[in-house]
Amino acid sequence: MDRLMMSTHSLAVRINCSVLKLAKLYIREIVRLHSKQLQESLGTRLNFNTTLHPHSDGQSE
Questions:
Q1: What is the Cα–Cα distance from 21 to 38, expressed in whole angstroms?
Q2: pTM to 2 decimals?
Q3: Is the per-residue pLDDT at 1 higher than 50?
Q4: Nearest to 33 by CA among 54, 7, 52, 12
Q5: Given a cut of 60, is residue 11 above it in pLDDT?
Q6: Contact 52, 34 (CB under 8 A)
Q7: How far is CA 19 from CA 9, 26, 56, in A?
Q8: Integer Cα distance of 35 and 41 in angstroms
Q9: What distance in Å separates the CA atoms of residue 51 and residue 29, rounded to the nearest whole number?
Q10: Which GO terms describe its biological process (predicted)?
Q11: What is the rounded distance in angstroms from the CA atom of residue 8 to the CA atom of residue 43?
Q12: What is the spatial distance between Cα 24 and Cα 32, in angstroms, rounded to a whole number?
């Protein structure tokens, strides 16, 4: 069995839900629950940074 398919989530949405609203809902409800496992399975990692942090502006050494 695929490790990513061990659970199922359903979201109730209206038929006329826009793609943008659906994407935001998907991120808010699904990605937040599984992002760590998904990134590990893909062999990638998320690197969040802020423009206020001096090491992330590309100017600092």
A1: 22
A2: 0.47
A3: no
A4: 7
A5: yes
A6: no
A7: 18, 10, 32
A8: 10
A9: 26
A10: proteolysis
A11: 22
A12: 11
- Give percent of the chain above pLDDT 70: 64
**Residue position matching structure tokens 């992330």:** 56
Mind listing the pLDDT tens digit for each residue in 14-43? 889 899 998 888 888 877 777 777 777 878
Residue 28: C-alpha distances to residues 5, 18, 24, 53 (Å): 19, 15, 6, 25
What backbone phi and psi angles, to 5 degrees, belong to 3? -65, -30
Calpha distance 21→17 (Å, rounded): 6
Neighbours of 13 (CB within 10 A): 12
Rounded to whole angstroms, the Cα distance separating 48 from 17 reads: 29
